[in-house]
Amino acid sequence: MAQSQRNSVFAVFGALLFLLLLGGREAYARDLQGRVGVGYNSQFANSAVDSPVPGLSVKYALSRDLAVEAVVGMRTSSPTNTVSGVKLFKNLFIETNLNFYMALGGAVLAANGNSGVELIGTLGAEFFIPGLESLGFSFEAGGGLHNLTNDSFSFRTLGASFVDAGMHFYF
Fold this sequence. Notes:
mainly beta, 9 strands, 12% helix
């Protein structure tokens, strides 16, 4: 695929995900507004390499239906592996103990001597067990563009269960 074609695919993919994120209706899901969640996230491409590393994350709910998350992870032994990224979440559907959302994310990655960037777009859910309302378990599915393994962008599908997708404790 030529460089101009890759750039076109990348631009269209990013524009569509951005429009979807902004176009949802107002959500009345579990209200986490003003709460901070501390936990982990493992959706970026460096979790699929030989020496995987999940990222520790801090998630903050800006409103009932918007949240942001910062992700940082590292492994200093050989081979090294690092991730630094951000994600933006928008809740889409109403549930008592579940937030169904879409998310956009971007990260700078390094693994096995290679470095690159990744942009992801996902649909996911964060669920809360009744009686444990401050502990959220998430899972996501979607796609991403990354260039961690070579100089050109490639597309990959994403799918992660709550065991490796994410978990946050909200204060």
